[in-house]
Amino acid sequence: MGPHPAVAAIRLAVRRVLHDILTEHHSDPGAAVAFPPGTSGAFPAASGAGRTAGGAPEMPSAGPREFPLGAQREVPSAGSGGLTRAGSGDFPAAHEAGRPAARQAGRPAGRAGARDLAPGATMERPPAPLVLVACSGGADSMALASALAFEAPRLGVRAGGITVDHGLQPGSDLRAEEVVLRLRALGLDPVESATVSVGRDGGPEAAARDARYAALDAAAERHGAAAVLLGHTRDDQAETVLLGLARGSGIRSLSGMAAVSGAGGRYRRPFLQLDRQTARKACMVQSLPVWDDPHNTDPSYTRSRLRHEGLPALEKALGKGVVEALARTAQLSRDDADALDSWAREAEAGVRDGAGRLECGKLYALPPAVRRRILRRAAIEAGCPAGSLFARHIEEVDRLITSWRGQGAINLPGRVVARRQGGRLVIRQG
Questions:
Q1: What is the SS3 assignment for 214-232?
Q2: pLDDT, average across residues 183-212
Q3: How many CB atoms lie within 10 A of CB 60?
Q4: How far apart, in whole angstroms, are the C-alpha atoms of residue 387 and residue 380?
Q5: 297-336 burial, b if ≥16 CB within 10 A, otherwise e?
Q6: Contacts of 318 (CB under 8 A, 6+ apart)
Q7: What are the tens digits of pLDDT across the range 348-398?
Q8: What is the spatial distance between Cα 133 and Cα 184, in angstroms, rounded to a whole number?
Q9: What does the pLDDT average to over 69-90?
Q10: Integer CA distances (angstroms), 269 to 203, 257, 288, in order
Q11: Considering only CA atoms, which of 202, 276, 207 is closest in space to residue 238?
């Protein structure tokens, strides 16, 4: 008998993402590692090594060898002194926080060409990638952590976890410690808790989000993680689309959250096609304890009001299927926005003069959606904070091109000023 349908659904979603990560990892020409002759290159001597999963001594290796993708061996767990399952190509003694040995030794991690190899040395498969799960202890992220813990060893992927303590509630440090214990109980390694200080810029929700992502970025860099999995569901996507619609900030806001985002595609969201109830059901049938964040029901937060008042009202007025329709709108909007962004990048070179200044006449000839994207890019390059640059700002700059009547400069966030001079649009810090 197979797993419960909810459990099967979350595992399948994670498996697909891990397959993508593995494909990217093994196709990276800079990930190959060279080993000198006479060494196995796979598992350096360390306490507890040299035995198979069944406990029998392993025969010494006569030379370099590779293990097929997904092959399992027991190797020393980093920082624990114990044994953990790992995929082929792990280098426990040669790693520090999951980074390739070559990088730890100060060598560049680029392609190892023939001239870099010692006589008789061979090329080995790169070490197994590390994937972290960001876990708050809630049902969505605990379901994600359990699916990662189940699928990663079967695909030869190392799996770890991180929880972020925002310090916004009494006892948040104890909650973070409990989440760490739960993640370790699932078999994840490394696991850590990161404490952050939440500022006030952009409001409490935006400030907490910024602090959280900064901590996740730092953890990914520190451990050399190939990706960080986030537990956003289809319901979260629908809420994000509605919030973007309320702001009136254009099609990009209606695009919601991308399945892959961040520098180098660091962040992956496997559950964007699954609803919140599926994740909660998966936790229940696996007897996974979950933590319900009181902020999620606090009406002082916009997203909480939308979740418990706005979406139910829409479903009552329009019928079931609103969440699915909004999630589908996000994907369609993202496809359109990506196409327009690509068009704008190609068109930008043609609207600049020899000195790189934007020519108003050529900008005027472009479709508004393309022209405004060019203006937004120019404002951000001049120093405008992207998160503070709204549609109304770009519309005012656009009027310097489409409705020019000698008006003065436009003040933008970040002390950036846009003005029209001699048929050119000048955008720079004032």
A1: HHHHHHHHHHCCCEEECCC
A2: 87
A3: 7
A4: 10
A5: eeeebebbebbeebbeebeeeeeeebbeebbebbbebbee
A6: none
A7: 999 999 889 999 999 999 999 999 999 999 999 999 998 788 888 999 999
A8: 12
A9: 36
A10: 24, 9, 21
A11: 276
Give the mean pLDDT of the chain.
Answer: 80
Question: What pLDDT does residue 51 have?
Answer: 37
User: Residues 373, 340: contact at Cβ < 8 Å?
Assistant: yes
DSSP string over 306-317: IIIIIHHHHHHH
d(CA 215, CA 204): 17
Rounded mean pLDDT, 237-265? 88
**CA-based end-to-end distance of the chain:** 68
The pTM score is 0.72
How would DSSP label each residue in 133-172? EE--SSHHHHHHHHHHHHHHHHHT-EEEEEEEE---STTH
pLDDT of residue 120: 59
268 Cβ neighbours under 8 A, 6+ residues apart: 17, 20, 21, 227, 228, 229, 230, 259, 260
81 has pLDDT over 60: no
H or E stretch at 53: none
In order of 156, 240, 309, 317, 340, the CA distances from 266 in angstroms are 19, 20, 33, 39, 24
105 vs 248, residue with greater confidence: 248
The single residue listed with the structure tokens 């990048």 is 345
> In what helix (H) or strand (E) does residue 116 lie, and over which residues does it extend?
none
Judge whether 254 and 330 are in contact, CB under 8 Å. Answer: yes
**Four-point Cα dihedral 347, 353, 357, 361, nearest 10:** -70
Please, what is the Cα angle at 110 between 107 and 114, to 5 degrees?
95
**Tokens 């090594």 sit on residue:** 49
Region at 183 (left for phi over 0; alpha for psi -120 to 50; beta for the rest):
alpha
Tell me which residue of 173, 177, 192 sits closest to 78, measured CA to CA.
192
pLDDT tens, position by position, 210-247 = 899 999 999 999 999 999 999 999 999 999 999 888 87
Indicate if the pLDDT at residue 72 is higher than 60: no
Q: What angle do CA 192, 70, 43 make, to 5 degrees?
A: 70
